[in-house]
Amino acid sequence: MVKSVMCETITSTLASKIQSQFPLLNNHQNPLKLCYLDTAATSQKPHCVIDAMNEYYHTYNSNVHRAAHQLSARATVDYEKVRNDLVTFINARTRQEIIFTHGTTESLNMLAYGLESTFSAGDLILIDSAAHHANIVPWQQLAQRTGAFVKAIPLDQDFNLDLIGYQKLLKLRPKLVAISHVTNALGTVNPVSQIISLAKTANAITVVDGAQAIAHTSVDVSELDCDFYAFSGHKMYGPTGVGILYGKTEKLAQLTPMLTGGEMIKTVSFDNTIFGELPNRLEAGTPPISEVIGLGAAIKFMNQYFTKEHQDEEKQLLNYLQFSLAELDDIEIYASNENNLGVVSFNVKGEHHQDVGILLDQQGIAIRCGHHCAMPLMDLMKINGCCRVSIGLYTTKVDIDCFIDALKQVQQLLKD
Amino acid sequence: MSSFIPANERFLYEVESIENLKHKFAVTNNWQEKYRLLMLLGKSVPSISDEYKVEPQQVDGCESAAWLYHYQQDDKHYFLADSDARIVKGLISILLIMFHSQDSKTICGSPIEATFEQLGLLNQLSPSRANGLQALAAKMVSYAKS
């Protein structure tokens, strides 16, 4: 049970102020009148992000790194500036450590392909049992191609990573450990620092999927000391179609490029090609330029609003959500109260998650239901899916109250 | 798995007429009544017992699972279909009311979309819904075509 949360202390004042910056959430402009509680799938975008992309297309649309003309020069400057902003945002060391991709999934695939030549038969890869498919399938495929094998780090009874089980697996000297910073299905925060430092004792490469963490907690890759960290723009108030692969320079340098072609080369002849330097070496072809520029605006937005106060308010709101849900009868809440971010997952006892999702949708409440692209976790939990409510900086107490009222209606309807 | 199908007599059940169904929906006053009706509808057609809820008969949907069996006698097509979710089962029942014990010509000429639109349920049929209903409808029609 959630304790010590007084409903009346939840103000969500900061969120209410921010909401006006999101055109889709602004009731006057939102034709669907949605109560949006599916931020973990993708966040809404503030005006500044949409405007930045608009401005690029309206005033300086051109390709980057081909600057014989002013348009391209400006596009390149703005594009590369975002790389520098990201260095500061996640506390990387140099701009070579920031690779633009199309999303977390591509970042992780890029790793699984890029590391292939360093794997051989019998190598062990440890993955997070609560991971989503993007941090499972690429490793499985790598294992199939190389003869390596994959083992899942067990979970304890609260579906947290079992650190004792993990340490036992480390004795098998895994070559790589891939985990989530925050899980997408349950919002569980993994003790990443500890997992990484333990992995180092076994000399394993460490990969962190930060897709669900990046918009809810400050990420410091230097402090985490992971080898790789992957995340997406669209989960942090930025556009879809852009992701980031952070890697330590010396680790990124070891990757075989998954994509080859323009932009990533130094010299090409019909006999041979010499690849260029980082970061371009891993960014073949025309990158998602408008998306990177939009992401730049999202970082600026986060720098302004992703303050300690806002983060605290978001956590309070999540507690309020858990508390309000726990007050209802016949609700099964998954994951612990203390140790999760952004997400509360639940089922109405005896009811199918999709029925709940559809009946909430009828009342304008947008949540996600299903297996959340984490089928192995659902198997471990012995459920075939669940409902997931997720929040962001713009979520208010009113949103949560609307959801709870709607859920009461759903329960009533399903009882009839 | 093809020999492992429910006995023929399991397929021989009756469904109400489509006119009757349309009338029932026409007199609902709000979304609650409509979805209540839908869930009741799901109870009016046979369920598939668990032993027959097997993967080869499964129609994929991300959010729920559905199963479909087909049996043909002369030119009449008989179906058993089920879902683990109640509303989807209700939606499937509408397809059964349209298709069950009909001949190929009727099934292939059935105005699926128009019917769902009349019932005010078109968006539940859309391919953007992860309930697999459209895949199920397509599979039923493909049985009638083959």
UniProtKB/TrEMBL annotation, chain A:
UniProt KW keywords: Pyridoxal phosphate, Transferase
Record field: catalytic activity: (sulfur carrier)-H + L-cysteine = (sulfur carrier)-SH + L-alanine
Cofactor: pyridoxal 5'-phosphate
Record field: transmembrane: none
One of the GO biological process terms: cysteine metabolic process
Enzyme Commission identifier(s): 2.8.1.7
Family: Belongs to the class-V pyridoxal-phosphate-dependent aminotransferase family. Csd subfamily.
Protein name from the UniProt record: Cysteine desulfurase
Native organism: Parashewanella spongiae
Organismal lineage: Bacteria, Pseudomonadati, Pseudomonadota, Gammaproteobacteria, Alteromonadales
Gene field: sufS
From TrEMBL, chain B:
Domain Fe-S metabolism associated: 24-140
Superkingdom classification of source: Bacteria
InterPro entries with a match to the protein in the record: Fe-S_metab-assoc_dom
Protein family according to the UniProt entry: Belongs to the SufE family.
Protein's name in the database: SufE family protein
Source species of the chain: Parashewanella spongiae
Taxonomic lineage of the native organism: Bacteria, Pseudomonadati, Pseudomonadota, Gammaproteobacteria, Alteromonadales
